[in-house]
Amino acid sequence: MILAACPVLPSKALPLGDALGCVTVAPVVAGHDVPSFANSAMDGFAVRAADTATVPVTLQVVGTAAAGAAPGVEVGPGEAVRIMTGAVVPPGADAIVMVERTSPAVDGGGVRIDVPASPGDHIRHPGEDLRAGQELFDPGTELGPGHLGVLASVGLETVEVVPPARVGVLSTGDELVSGPGELRPGQIRDSNRPTLLALVARAGCIPVDLGTAPDDEAAITAAIERGIASCDAILTSGGVSVGDFDYVKTVLDRMGDMHWWQVAVRPAKPLAFGTVRGTPVFGLPGNPVSSMVSFELFARPALRQMTGHLQLLRPEVPAVAEEAFLRRPDGKLHLVRVVATTDDDGRLHVRASGGQASHLLRAMALANALALLPDGEGVAEGGRVKVMLLT
Ligand code: AMP
Ligand code: MG
């Protein structure tokens, strides 16, 4: 239901410098060959291979070809041109001899070639990397540093991609304070907002800080309105449970089309999701671990879909339980915060990263995976358990 309400954002042409991590929507085509001219793969001498059939042989050096210079002097029989890596292969030459296989001729002016060359040696040919008209990347490619380099190498300044989604993050709760200073009795510091803003950034989206709202309908309404005006999706935390002051529910029900779920998972049971005037809104639970796990399970796949990614879910792989993960049947999937390490044979091993209650954030910070315990009695030490990798 969530994915059905989170369509891909409209694509646009972004400068390469802004497109890291974005997903292409159309085939990108090379406008010219790369390399666009035959050039040297080595520092050395451009020669006619036939002249080096019998070595050592001394050739007359008739010029120098530097990278960036236009094609220079022609190499005639018995001649060579000193050449640098990346320089145009001079007309007449059909091979490069690397400088390490040469020495200055004793009588001066020439170069002694010590090894025979074959035609084509150390020459990079036009179009060897990319051909004009070639499709560079399939639609749906997530652009990494290398992709951006390839696009730059054919002279593209912009690329048509799904832009990063702007995702608003709002904390709610009368008890929340931000920053340093004394806590009054009952107050706690807002940890969900920095966490969720960072999770948004890690998901390749643009985090938009909507601040903290008290448990007050007008304040929550105003913050959601600000979010709707400037964001492609909104995450709230807190106030979606069944407490007396859980006003997020009242406000979102009035503003949009919301679903209120109790999901059969632990942690992260309460979840609200819906749209407010077309903008997806995720009402994540207030408990810090629950809000992180809810983000992973429900918001991140949706944000990845909105930003055009084809792979929405984290990888799930088998691992060996280094300790028993026992549980009771309760109809829920349990997600256990674990540290996963790989042994010399490439097998993954997991152990708990700390206590598992949903307010214990440090164990979540230390975890790099969530072990998935389906309903039942859990897994004995040494048993097999499936884990969702978070990194
Ligand atoms: P709630 O979902 O509003 O009932 O909150 C559940 C628990 O999470 C309560 O203990 C809240 O104090 C705590 N909590 C809610 N929001 C935050 C937040 N932004 N940072 C840290 N803890 C929070
Ligand atoms: Mg609350």
Summarize the model shown.
The chain has helices at 145-153, 192-202, 217-230, 247-255, 288-306, 361-366, and strands spanning 12-15, 23-24, 28-29, 39-40, 44-47, 57-65, 79-83, 95-98, 102-104, 110-113, 123-124, 135-137, 158-162, 166-172, 176-177, 188-189, 206-213, 233-237, 257-262, 265-266, 270-276, 279-284, 316-321, 325-326, 333-342, 348-352, 369-373, 378-379, 384-389. With 391 residues, the protein is an alpha+beta fold. The chain has four domains: 3-32 and 144-162, no CATH class; 39-124, Molybdopterin biosynthesis moeA protein, domain 3, CATH 2.170.190; 166-232 and 247-261 and 272-306, MoaB/Mog-like domain (Molybdenum Cofactor Biosythetic Enzyme, Chain A, 3-Layer(aba) Sandwich); 316-389, Beta-clip, CATH 2.40.340.10.
Task: Please outline the helices and strands.
Elements lengths: L11 E4 L7 E2 L3 E2 L9 E2 L3 E4 L9 E9 L13 E5 L11 E4 L3 E3 L5 E4 L9 E2 L10 E3 L7 H9 L4 E5 L3 E7 L3 E2 L10 E2 L2 H11 L3 E8 L3 H14 L2 E5 L9 H9 L1 E6 L2 E2 L3 E7 L2 E6 L3 H19 L9 E6 L3 E2 L6 E10 L5 E5 L8 H6 L2 E5 L4 E2 L4 E6 L2
Parallel strand pairs: 6-7, 14-17, 14-18, 15-16, 18-22, 20-25, 23-26
Antiparallel strand pairs: 1-13, 2-13, 3-12, 4-11, 5-7, 5-8, 6-10, 9-10, 19-21, 21-22, 23-29, 24-28, 25-26, 25-27, 27-29
Helix pairs in contact: 2-5, 3-4
